[in-house]
Amino acid sequence: MSEIRSFVELVQSIYGTKDFIPLHEPRFDEKEKRYLAQTIDSTFVSSVGEFVDKFEAAISNYCGAGKAAAVVNGTAALQVALRIAGVNNKSEVITQALTFVATANAISYNGASPVFVDVDYDTMGLSPLALRNFLNEFGELRETGAYNKSTGKRISAIVPMHTFGFMCRIDEIVEIANEWNIPVVEDSAESLGSSYKGKHSGTFGLMGAFSFNGNKIITSGGGGAIVSSDPQFANKAKYLTNTAKVPHAWDYYHDEIGYNFRMPNLNAALGLAQFEKLNEFIESKKTVYEIYCKELDSGSFRMKEIPVDTEWNYWLFPVEFQDQESKNKFMEYTNSNNVMTRPIWQLMYKLPMYENSQRDAQINTKLLAERIVNIPSSAKKV
Ligand SMILES: *Cc1c(COP(=O)(O)O)cnc(C)c1O
Questions:
Q1: What is the CATH number of the domain that holds 294?
Q2: Are residues 303 and 266 in the same domain?
Q3: Among the three residues 226, 248, 275, which one is the final residue of a domain in this structure?
Q4: Which residues does a 6 A CB cutoff place in the pocket of ligand 1?
Q5: Which of 72, 96, 103 to mutate to test the pocket of ligand 1 (most atoms within 8 A of CB)?
Q6: d(C-alpha 382, C-alpha 11), whole Å
Q7: Pair (196, 289) in one structural domain
């Protein structure tokens, strides 16, 4: 217990307060207020405005993607990226059960079914080995694409998720996906600022989806973006999320059923001010992470190691426990002492809507679900 008590004291000293300390809170200063005031003064608060263009350009330049389309949230970004990748109501999409529910929901919104394949223990993201095994057992490559022999459905996409900003073995996943002629859409909601072997999250597959929700590394209030190194896909995303309106000076003509998923200019103003501080946030979070590592190097829990080849954005810090009992004790004590800690998500196949989804043995997924807890990870207050 004294170990947990000193953990609570450590967190309080890092953030300089004994008040409630959340897992992740945003940091704002005058810049956000300035950009927001500018937006209001301009009257362009809604779906048209210069901050949307600036924010999209900032995100795509930073990631080295060809282009970005800013949208209302990360879930919508994933939903539309999957539709563009060809996912429909006759499809299956391979993803991981160790994720936030939005990943699976975005698949469902397209009428498709998720299939859950195991993650790697070190990265906590989709495992290339498990993916290969699944496809070797159930996949059948036909002229029109890859099919699941056990269901007869087309496997229309693979969605790896970069958990807490750790990068999965995305190069191997893309290689396997190419062999099977299946497009990859990265769920990069948590990994803006992370890269793998020098290349940014979201730029490995056909498209990547970011989130700028309030708990993410930068926030636009609510928001998301679809990025792609091929501008064709980002343009298509822009058009579909803008009601599929065919550009014309005055005519309202729409040639398919699109969405009203554009990011408002007001949100883009907030997002841009935040984006301009992304590197500072990463630096500050790294400092906090290193304090934790130094102080928590022994005992019943330890910081999960950053996987090789990942340049981490330090979004949310995972701590690894040896057993469930010590984990539960830790969560009880910290949460009743004003320090928020949280277990990893309930696995997708434990939720009623996905309990019948096809899945493999989920060996690492289950171990991680038992052992991983997130601890306060905000940047320091300035
Ligand atoms: C946050 C998140 C999303 C969805 O983003 P929203 O902006 O909240 O819709 C999707 N996938 C993962 C893994 C996330 O963490």
A1: 3.90.1150.10
A2: no
A3: 275
A4: 73-75, 99-100, 102-103, 161, 187, 189-190, 211, 213, 224
A5: 103
A6: 16
A7: no
Q: What is the pLDDT of residue 1?
A: 66
- Find the mean pLDDT for residues 110-131: 98
| pLDDT of 244 | 95
Give residue 381's pLDDT band: very low, low, confident or very high (50, 70, 90). Answer: confident
φ and ψ at 104, to 5 degrees?
Answer: -70, -40
* Atom 13 in ligand 1: residue holding the nearest Cα: 100
Q: Which of 201, 211, 217, 342 to mutate to test the pocket of ligand 1 (most atoms within 8 A of CB)?
A: 211
Q: Which two tokens stand for residue 17?
A: 């307060």
> Does the model's pTM come out above 0.90?
yes
Distance CA 94, CA 114 (A): 6
In a domain, 231, yes or no: yes
Cα 74 to averaged position of ligand 1 atoms, centre (Å): 5
Instruction: Record the tokens describing residue 24, joined without a space.
Output: 């992740």
Task: Let me know: does 93 contact 105? Beta carbons within 8 Å.
Answer: no
Mean pLDDT in residue range 190-200: 98
- 100 shares a domain with 160: yes
Same domain? 317 vs 342:
yes
Last residue of a domain, one of 275, 306, 321: 275
Cα(189) to centroid(ligand 1), Å: 5
